[in-house]
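JOB MANIFEST
job_type = single_chain_structure
chain_count = 1
residues = 232
[input]
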Amino acid sequence: MFEGLKKNISDLFFPVECITCAQPGQFFCGECQKLIVSIDNRCLVCNDRASSVGLCSVCAPSVNYDEIYVLGKFTGTVLETAVEKLKFSFIEELAKILAQCLSAKLSARGLVIDSKNAIIIPIPLHEKRFCERGFNQSELLAQELARDLRGVTRSDILFRSRATRQQARLSRAEREENIHDAFTIRNGEYIKDKIVYIIDDVFTSGATVNFAAKLIREYAPQKIVILALAHG
């Protein structure tokens, strides 16, 4: 009863409307979800060659993961608006909607997460940034994906060991330097022989997930798969 009353009061003063078209009822409406620009069957590292797993045969040896899947294109699209609203306008409910969109796409492409042999690891925030924001968007996405795909989320394995500058504002070379030695691993014994899914919001140069995957690779996982909402 009280939860319902609380929701009604919240809806009265802070009405729920689509962050892109302002239609009432949902933060990211179904019609705007249809505007997501898919990126399929090409390498997400070189943006050139064809690939069904996001990595071409030329780029695959240069990274520390095996596959990468994204929901769609980032720059100049509805996904850019949605991700920015999630991160900087603190609309946590968007995590559930976006995770559902991503899980639907993964399921359509035949990617099934076996909960007995897989773990989903979110890219962590540094403690300072977590306190500023109040939540980690990648962790929220991981938790929602775990529900949809019946996986297991582990936030006690990959940790941010030092604060870094925002990657989006840096060049490719600066991103590599910025993220170097920014993560540490704990409880690495849980990684051995597992299929590890690393979840982040946006894949740009791939420096962040690649360094995380490098550390995870040292604990002998069966495979490492990168999942992201957007590429750009």
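[summary]
The beta strands are 67-73, 118-122, 158-160, 183-185, 195-203, 223-231.
DSSP finds eight helices and six strands in the chain.
exit_status = 0
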